[in-house]
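Example complex used in Figure S2.
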Amino acid sequence: MKICSREYRLGEFERYCKEWIWVFGIKDWTCSYRYGANVGCSAEVQYNTKSRQATLLIPKTRVKGEQLRLSALHEIWHLLMADLTTMAEGAVSGDRVLCEEHKIIARMENYIKKDCVAKKSKGKKKGGCK
Ligand SMILES: [Zn+2]
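Predicted assembly (130 residues):
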C-alpha cells in the first residue's frame, strides 16, 4: 500500500512527539495527533489538564523534517508545563503566562541548537542533530 506524503508527515511528527514524551518521562497524558494547527504555526498542542487528553497538531502546509522534529519538542515542552501554566493562568492573564512559557522554551531551544552545533563541530553527530 502506498502511503501519501501527508500521511507520512503526520506519522513522522507523531514519532518525534513520542520520542520526546519518552525522553521527558511523560506518562500521565493520552495524546492524539492530527492536522489542523492554526495558520502560521509549525505545530500546536491543545490539552485538558483534568481529562489528561492532549492533541498535537501540525498544519496542512509543508514543514521540513528538522523543523518538524523541533516543533514536536516545542509542543512537548508546552505539555510538560501544562499543569503549571493552567495554575498560573488562574492568577494572571493567559497571554502573560504564555509569554513567560515561551521565554523558557526559547532558552531550552537555544540550548538544544548550541548543543547540536557543538556536536557537529566535534564530529560527534548524535541524537538526530543535523
Ligand atoms: Zn509555543
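The beta strands are 30-35, 44-48, 53-58. The chain is about 55% helix and 15% strand.
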